[in-house]
């Protein structure tokens, strides 16, 4: 059976139906009905990607490299600055919208389970999403802040690859690609199924333009898991479609053997991926959520990025995050 066959994955089929509302409409969570921070409208909340107090830092930059095994890598403002010009500190603000369903139910997810299953949803077109973003951008500018990052999160945005492509197309039509970068967060496991259900293959010009879409993917399951084939195939397809891919794992529960296996799996897809991988140095089931969901408290262990750095040095002769990730080419 194919890993993404709907009969095997009822959550995939259900969540795909929820998000793809039909007739160019997609389902989003009404953020006013969540406990997420800095909600501005039902469509968007604001977020500061790099925050020293929260240890979210661009540790692939030389000035933060010493913290790469302690801090959580957060580098979208760096990639935005590389696209649009200026320093990353000028791009340290994102507007986030959340699609209304996900095909996974990770115990550590910071989104309430109801909001992974279409609870409190409304529908909107890509045009409406961009119009809301433009209005929010104008409001933040009046308040003295630049808003240059539009982030589509979830839920699982690549249940609806057409949504992402349409938002990018609308940004282009509004002449905003010189001022705004589109970032998507995905688990990638739904992409092959959703892509088959959706649009025709993009032509060369559309693929080239999609290289500007930053696709940040957390690989939630290791290569020896049942979920891995769908994740691996989604990763390969994402590169083939043309997304600019930035993978990550939150790996305190990954064994050294699983990390070694991941190295070879990623290398087979694209050698650049292993040098772009963010190995989160924290337990994904961090204490606040562990308490909320009554999970066992994590035990201390060596940062998995230290193990990953050893693997990288052994096989490719470079250290972990030796270069800013957007400078590592993907083939
Ligand atoms: S894949 Fe992401 S959005 Fe979906 S349940 Fe897991 S953490 Fe939450």
Strand content: 15-25%
Average pLDDT? 91
Distance between the termini: 30 Å
Order of helices and strands: HEEEEEHEEHEHEHHEHEHHEHH
Identify the CATH architecture: Alpha-Beta Barrel
Query: What ligand molecules are bound, each kind once?
Result: iron/sulfur cluster
Low-pLDDT runs of 5+ residues are 1-7
Q: Quick one: how many beta strands?
A: 12
Main sheet properties:
7 strands, mixed
Helix content bin: 25-40%
Structural class: alpha/beta
Please report the first level of CATH classification, the CATH class.
Answer: Alpha Beta
Shape: globular
Domain module tally: 1
User: Total number of helical segments?
Assistant: 11
The strand order across the widest sheet is 3-6-8-9-10-11-12
Radius of gyration from the CA trace?
Answer: 19 Å
Protein name: Radical SAM core domain-containing protein
Pfam families: Radical_SAM (PF04055)
Keywords: Iron, Iron-sulfur, Metal-binding, S-adenosyl-L-methionine
InterPro entries: Aldolase_TIM (IPR013785), rSAM (IPR007197), rSAM_sf (IPR058240)
């Amino acid at each position: 059976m194919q890993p993404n066959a709907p009969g095997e994955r009822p959550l995939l089929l259900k969540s795909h139906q929820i998000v793809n509302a039909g007739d160019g409409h997609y389902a989003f969570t009404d953020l006013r009905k969540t406990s997420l921070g800095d909600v501005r409208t039902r469509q968007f909340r604001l977020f500061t990607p790099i925050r020293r107090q929260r240890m979210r830092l661009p540790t692939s930059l030389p000035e933060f490299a010493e913290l790469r095994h302690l801090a959580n890598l957060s580098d979208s403002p760096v990639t935005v600055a590389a696209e649009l010009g200026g320093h990353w500190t000028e791009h340290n603000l994102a507007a986030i919208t959340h699609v209304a369903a996900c095909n996974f139910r990770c115990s550590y997810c910071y989104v309430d389970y109801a909001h992974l299953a279409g609870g409190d949803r409304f529908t909107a077109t890509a045009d409406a999403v961009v119009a809301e973003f433009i209005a929010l951008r104008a409001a933040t500018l009046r308040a003295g802040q630049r808003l240059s990052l539009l982030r589509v999160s979830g839920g699982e945005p690549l249940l609806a690859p057409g949504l992402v492509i349409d938002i990018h197309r609308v940004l282009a039509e509004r002449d905003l690609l010189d001022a705004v970068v589109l970032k998507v967060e995905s688990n990638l496991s739904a992409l092959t199924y959703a892509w088959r259900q959706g649009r025709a293959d993009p032509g060369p010009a559309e693929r080239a333009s999609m290289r500007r879409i930053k696709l940040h993917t957390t690989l939630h399951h290791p290569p020896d898991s049942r979920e891995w084939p769908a994740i691996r195939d989604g990763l390969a397809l994402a590169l083939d479609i043309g997304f600019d891919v930035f993978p990550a794992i939150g790996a305190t529960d990954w064994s050294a053997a699983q990390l070694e296996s991941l190295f070879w799996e990623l290398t087979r897809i694209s050698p650049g991926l292993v040098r772009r991988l963010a190995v989160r140095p924290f337990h994904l089931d961090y204490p606040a959520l562990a308490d909320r969901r009554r999970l066992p408290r994590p035990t201390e262990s060596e940062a998995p990025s230290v193990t990953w750095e050893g693997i990288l040095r052994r096989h490719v002769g470079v250290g972990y995050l030796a270069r800013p990730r957007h400078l590592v080419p993907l083939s």
